Amino acid sequence: MASRKPALETRFEQGLFASRWLMAPMYLGLVVSLAMLTVIFLKELAYYAPKTFSMGADQGILAILTLIDLSLAANLLLIVLFSGYENFVSKLDLEDSRDRPSWMGKVDFSGLKMKLIASIVAISGIHLLKVFMEIGKKGADAAVTESQMFWMVVLHLTFVASGVLLALMDWLAGLTTKH
User: Fold this and answer.
1) Over the stretch 121-133, which tens digit does the pLDDT of each residue have?
2) Residues of 66-80 as b/e, b for ≥16 C-beta within 10 angstroms?
3) Given this model, what pLDDT does residue 139 score?
4) pTM for the whole thing?
């Protein structure tokens, strides 16, 4: 015969479980962050669009990389928003699931970590590429010193190594039957 938990312990555990809803305001904050990022994207687009016919190929590529960088950050934000909410707060019960992305409800914490680090590596790589493309150009937005460039590359490689190590740890954890 199974023993029953004391009522105090049951209420405590129910309270702990209900505390997950304290994350909800944070996810609302991420929605506001997404709106902020959208405004920044539109500002950048409005800045670059009128210059399309007067900019060179390098300037055009830099403008496009800036917009891609912002859209990757927004994608990352959505992944964290949807996956985090579904993994830690509550499942999204949506009436019409035709537009529901195929990955929603399937990205666990491990998958979320991998998507997060992959996005960070992509964003870092794009930023690094933009800086490399501006080296030696007059009027470059952000002239960087050799030391700053070194640390930017080191930081990017650290993100890459972290991603590889996270993938390796997830792979090794998947090989074991005990967690």
Assistant:
1) 888 888 888 888 8
2) beebbebbbebbebb
3) 61
4) 0.70
